[in-house]
Amino acid sequence: MDIEQAFGIVIKKYRLGRSMSQERLAFEADLDRTFISLLERGKRKPTINTLFSISKVLEVRPHKIVKDVEILLQQR
Fold first, then answer.
1. What pLDDT shows up at residue 76?
2. Of the candidates 34, 32, 33, 43, which has an alpha carbon nearest to the alpha carbon of residue 9?
3. DSSP strand E in 1-76: where?
4. What pLDDT, in 10s, does the model give residues 13-38?
5. What is the DSSP letter of 56?
6. Of 7, 47, 61, 72, which sits most exposed with the smallest number of CB within 10 A?
């Protein structure tokens, strides 16, 4: 598993935890829905701006998302 895949898993976990669709997350983060889909599938690399935009909408601190990615990578 690479970083992009781990990031996608973590973002999807938080999004589903808030019962939020990809479309709603994308709209509130001012991103495209297809971009959210690509992120969640590990097909795109998020920028720091993307991380902060998504974390704000999901109400999760950016460092928490990064830490969860790090933990996931260590488990596999």
1. 74
2. 43
3. none
4. 999 999 999 999 999 999 999 999 99
5. H
6. 47
